[in-house]
Design brief:
129 residues, alpha/beta, Rossmann fold, 5-stranded parallel beta sheet, 45% helix
Length: 129
């Protein structure tokens, strides 16, 4: 039996974060949340996730800079960028910086689940650093 995927959602909107986390848990994922980049980096250091769902707009560190920090320490983790502002540019910058994909908020759950599986498959097995 396969182990459920470990996800980390990084978003500064607590209601969105918790709602998305619950919906993904219902789909069988193990989900943790962080409301900013610094909190996400601490969570990753304690127990790396296999896929990170990362908001572009964070209060403490820009989402693209946070992506770079995550990829520096955990290069094989899959990262999906989320943007609440219809910014295809930010999504493309995220992909250039190592993100697997991006989604615009509000994200359709089926589409996000598919992107999570793709990001995990592309990342392959990762070893915590």
């Amino acid at each position: 039996m396969m182990q459920p995927l470990q996800l980390l959602i990084v978003d500064d909107e607590p209601e969105f974060l918790e709602t998305l986390a619950e919906r993904l848990r219902f789909r069988g994922f193990v989900v943790r949340g962080a409301t900013g980049c610094r909190e996400a980096l601490v969570a990753m250091a304690a127990e790396p996730a296999q896929v990170v769902i990362l908001d572009v707009m964070l209060p403490d560190v820009d989402g693209l800079d946070c992506l770079r920090r995550i990829k520096k320490h955990w290069p094989q983790v899959g990262v999906i960028m989320l943007s609440g502002h219809a910014s295809i540019s930010a999504g493309m910058q995220g992909i250039a910086a190592g993100a697997s994909d991006y989604c615009l908020k509000p994200v359709e759950l089926g589409e996000l689940v598919e992107k999570i599986h793709i990001a995990h498959a592309e990342a392959g097995f990762f070893a915590p650093q």
